[in-house]
Amino acid sequence: MTIDDNDCVVRFENIGFRYGLGPEILRDISFTLAPGSLHFLTGSSGAGKSSLLKLIYLAAKPSRGLITLFGRDIATTPRRDLPALRRRVGVVFQEFRLLHHLSAFDNVALPLRVAGTRENDIRKHVAELLGWVGLENHMNARPTTLSGGQQQRVAIARAVIARPKLLLADEPTGNVDDRMALRLMHLFEELNKLGTTIVIATHNESLVKRLGRSCLRLEEGQLEIGASAPNRAAMAAASGAGGAAKQAVGAAAGRPRGHAV
To answer: How much is the average pLDDT of 51-74?
Structure first.
């Protein structure tokens, strides 16, 4: 089955998921993510946030139900077509998954090199983005020499550098202070303004309230959909980061892309 790509980026219909023969940890999950939308995914520890993200980026298969990604029914999509779908998804992993034999610069540059981007453009865009996340003095550092927060920022830069059509971020601010967390959120917001659909899994309820976006909440394996009212004062106090974020993400604007909510 094929659905118009303009209709939805992700669609879950009555999804259930279990590990092995254990009980279902996700039950009757149904939602649609519209193109260009931004959502927070919240829930207590162990609620299934990471598992839900794995289902979206095709690292796991549901035990039942239908998943549609970019208009393609995943159950009937040939395996040879799945890598092309995955390349349209950027992922910020909770455990970073950086390549330790590569520098911070080369980790971030990897998606662009895979896409065949010219080396001069790679140097410009990667240096600008790493500078924006505060790592201009660590471009040549290997991941094992960086702190957890620094590795997290490298992982975020790698995920956004190629302007994916869908970005999934699993606790992207878990190892940074509040100021950097807001700065990274502005980066995501600017990427979202360029058309990327974004899902951010987080425990940071105050951050969710500050930004006031649609909220998907997992509780006891089931999904609740709602909206969080924005804290306008907090957003205004941090608005200075927005212009810089727009400039950092804007450098990528000329490159080609690698219940409704």
So the answer is: 96
Can you tell me the mean pLDDT for 43-57? 93
Place of tokens 């987080």: 202
Q: Model's pTM, two decimal places?
A: 0.84
Classify 5 in phi/psi space as left (phi over 0), alpha (psi -120 to 50) or beta: alpha
Burial class for 49, CB neighbours closer than 10 Å (0-12, 13-18, 19+): buried
Distance (Å, rounded) from C-alpha 22 to C-alpha 188? 36
Angle at Cα 158 formed by Cα 113 and Cα 45, nearest 5°?
A: 145
From edge to edge, which strands make up the β-sheet containing 197-201?
89-92, 166-170, 197-201, 38-43, 214-219, 222-227
Helix ranges, 116-177 (H): 119-132, 148-160
Q: What is the pLDDT of residue 159?
A: 95
Q: Percentage of the chain surpassing pLDDT 70?
A: 84
State the pLDDT at residue 178.
Answer: 84
Say how far residue 80 (Cα) sits from the centre of its chain. 24
**Structure-token match 């490298």, residue found:** 154
Q: Which residue has the tokens 């000329």?
A: 254
- Quote the CA–CA distance of 70 and 79 in Å, as a whole number: 15
The stretch 122-151 carries a mean pLDDT of 95
In sequence order, the 6+-apart residues with CB closer than 8 A to the CB of 66 are: 11, 12, 13, 14, 15, 73, 75
* Residue range 161-175: mean pLDDT, rounded: 93
- CA-nearest of 63, 69, 29, 3 to 223 is 29
